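User: Before I run my own analysis I want an independent prediction to cross-check against. Here's the chain; please return only the structure tokens and, at the end, one sentence I can use as a sanity check.
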Amino acid sequence: MSGRLIQSLALSAACLLAGTVFAQSVPASHDMAARVAACTTCHGREGRATNSEYFPRLAGKPAGYLFEQLRNFRDGRRQQTYMNGLLANMSDAYLHDIAEYFASLDYPYSPPPASSAPSLQLARGKTLVFSGDPARGIPACASCHGEALTGVLPSVPSLLGLPRAYVAAQLGAWVTGQRRAIAPDCMAEVGRKLNSEDVHAVVSWLEIQPVPVSNKPVASLPTRPAMPCSAMETHP
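Assistant: Structure tokens:
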């Protein structure tokens, strides 16, 4: 058994154990750092992410986005065994507390890795990010995630500073239906139009982009989004 597989299994077991304790015994304390210990087991200290190629950063994401994703895991619109179990019995109010806590954190990002992707692939990725592919009905990523790609309030996340494997997996999950959102589910519609070459191009380009110092989501887009999307709405 490889060292990487052993490490992955150990981390998964730690997440499951932490999630079981967290879901069964919610502390009365207002010390959020202690209350979200199960989250940081996998997502890194203070939600800054780890060296894992999969678990995304939580710190600084829009609170609306984090809340919707926590609720999607709890309600089965997103499928991930440990997250589904961890959140199964949590109330909306508790999920709001978690989301607000991580959204309030602001830590610098690590520099992006060097890329070994072919230049044509990177160029294709940049084109899809900023121009889309109108002939195939694929909107630009920036048309919804903002020109700086740092997200839009209340619930559109940043596309920067994320592990390549995570972004690729999420795009794949939209295609297969393992990840869904409240209607109108714009990403499910976009995901069905992407092929594997598109996905590899986009994630390869995004992976090497530095996160700007001013990395907060913008309040609104300068123009209407490319398509109706529940992420642009506030849900009770």
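Sanity check: Confidence is low (pLDDT under 50) at residues 1-29.
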